[in-house]
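Human: For the file, kindly provide a plain-text protein record giving the amino acid sequence and the backbone structure tokens, at your earliest convenience.
Assistant:
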Amino acid sequence: MKISKKTIELRILSIVLLLIPLTGCAQSDKEIKNDTVLWSFFDKIKSNQEHNDRVITIVHIGDSHLQAGILPEEIRSRLQQEFGNSGFGFTFPYQLAKTNGTDLIEYNSNIEWQSQRIVFENLGYPVGLSGIAFFTDQPDFYLNLKVKDPKYEFNQIRIFSPDNQSGFKISQNQNEDPAELKNDSFQTIAKFKDEITTVSLIPNGNSSQYALNGLILENGKSGILYHSIGVNGAKFTDYNKYQLFFDQLAELKPDLIIISLGTNTAFDKADYSLSDFENHMDEFLDNLKSRNIDAPMLVTTPPPALRAKKEQNPKVPEFGDDLIGRSKQLNYAVWDLYLFLGGYENTQQLISEGLWAEDRIHFSEKGYKQQGAALADAIINSYREYQKSKD
């Protein structure tokens, strides 16, 4: 299916193509649209730069483009280098759930855990913050975590489980005495005297089933705490099925929410309409508002993607245009990833430069690193413009 040039022409109206190119991709003179929405977030960064006294929390929600961990790590590294490192943030044992994830954190266990992703029918499994149910009824397990990059050493860990079951003990390894735990409505918190790279979770013997929705690693320092939550195949409708996801998300107390969804929706059933897309996004936003989550939002448009490796999918730019068009009405900022990558007019360059994966939906490591760097730089550049306005 051939796409009309109209969509591309409208979205590159103020773009100078090939002017100071970044690996062949188009650059916008104002990369984040409607970025004044982010000023309350920038206020907190500015305050921390002046006083060095706060943790600024970013939650990035998406699909397989995030779950692999490559794009998020580029964002995390760049923002923390600029604004301070408060820790790795959200982590989950993806490999033990038989799926892919970052290689910066290693998990192992002595048992096989049960799991189910958010994309499947809601059968009552304990799906929460990770978007993946992860549970066992075996009473003698251990779950070991090891941080492989020393810059993510931590001295505090937060455990999220359904209804905060408090079913875990935590120690530096399964043979040591457990750490003292503090519980609240949604999480269990353990603090350590020194920064460490390994920790073990073992059962406390008080439950018949043990379920984990995710862990958060922090170092007690001021700066950026960036949480990446992505599930292969995820759409707005999948997150909307599980209210525990939004309940636990609220406990992260985000200062900025980044939403990167739309690719899988564009490949949904043929009769899935733009109106359906809007309604499901609105429901997602309503779920945030109902938890009093009022953090500013930054939405990214879905990147170019092909059907059967060769056919353009018109819903990708259609949904992206809609995200841009509704940004002022719904009060969120937008980073146009589709435009950054040049849209469907730039597919041959994406291929020749090794940015696309073989399926022409996902991207190579090089491609994801480029996208993560560009989004982080766009946030940093918008912050610098904000600073100028305050001078």
Summary: DSSP finds 13 helices and 20 strands in the chain. The chain has two domains: 1-86+222-391, 89-220. The longest helix spans residues 365-390. Confidence is low (pLDDT under 50) at residues 12-27.
